[in-house]
Amino acid sequence: MWFAIVLHSRKADVVLIDVYSTLNFWYAYSCSLLCRVFDIPYIPILHGGNLPARFQKNPKQAMALVNSAYKTVIPSAYLKQHLTAFNLPRVEVIPNTIDLANYSFKQRSNLQPNLLWVRAIDSIYNPEMALQTLALVREEFPEAKLTMVGPYKSISETAWQQTLKKYKLPVRMTGKVTKEEWIALAASHSVFVNTTTIDNMPVSVIEAMALGLPVVSTDVGGIPYLIQHEVSGLLVPSNDAPAMAQAVIRLLQSEKDTATLTLNARKVIEKYDWRVVSIQWKALFEGE
User: Fold this and answer.
1) 3-state helix, strand, coil in the chain (%, to 5)
2) Average confidence score pLDDT of the chain
3) Is the dihedral of CA 148, 150, 154, 157 positive or negative?
4) Number of other residues whose CB lies within 10 A of the CB of residue 86
């Protein structure tokens, strides 16, 4: 990140800085300092679902990051609402985006109990809840399986393999895959489960909704701003595997409910298409 700023300092019109709430925050903050040294306008894009806590823990650095910015972009109304107390200047809400043309909607029928989970193997995403959910779903559907897509982060591969052995479940681990690979993988799955404990506006959930996968998610952070319970998906309390399992079973047993939820979800996702969102970015750059 530092090298890119230095390398392009003489020709960059503006620097976009993705800001998260964990270690990345300090890289983002240092990049803003570097932009000021080279007198380059920058726009922090606040992604991290736990950024309100970061602003409370490091208010001096967090406010310096946004106060000197050309504009600050927040991808969800959730995060804007939870940062209201900090009176952030020059804030624009521009959602995360996908190119909808790359996501073919598939109306699922004859649902099979194949669950899909897509996040880093990280404690904040609560991957163990996905295993607990699968174990409970298998009480109703003994043939149920789970595919977990994502790289190892705070949980090592060795530690996770030990967890898998403890549960003795049919779980396929793919590791990190390309976008094209996981989109192709989604076609053979029936339900997308999102077990996170902290979140803002996860692109993986947006992608699942675009592809026609019914989503069962914890109701944390910005998720309820993205998914309306019983309308475009099903929401359950954080760390409540029995509730998630019951929601998954309900979808598997009711093709009609699943069809309604997925059609509604696809309509919601249309406003996150790049062709729509790019108009907001264009207006931002032009100072409108």
Assistant:
1) 50, 15, 35
2) 94
3) positive
4) 15
- Nearest-angstrom CA–CA distance, 263 and 210: 9
Query: In which residue ranges of the chain is pLDDT below 70?
Result: 288
Looking at residue 264, its pLDDT comes to 98
Backbone angles phi, psi at 187, to 5 degrees: -60, -25
Position 288 scores a pLDDT of: 55
Helices 127-140 & 157-167, crossing angle to 10 degrees? 20
> In terms of DSSP H, where are the helices of the chain?
2-7, 24-37, 51-57, 59-67, 77-82, 127-140, 157-167, 179-186, 203-211, 223-226, 241-253, 255-269, 274-285
How far is residue 265's CA from residue 228's CA, in Å, rounded to a whole number? 9
Sequence-distant contacts of 249-258: CB under 8 A, at least 24 apart:
249/137, 249/140, 249/141, 251/111, 251/190, 251/191, 251/214, 251/216, 252/111, 252/113, 252/137, 252/141, 252/190, 252/191, 255/108, 255/109, 255/110, 255/111, 258/108, 258/111, 258/214
**Has this prediction a pTM greater than 0.85?**
yes
The pLDDT tens digits of the residues spanning 50-84 come to: 899 999 999 999 999 999 999 999 998 888 888 99
| Element of type H or E holding 96 | none
Residue 215 host element (H or E): strand 215-218
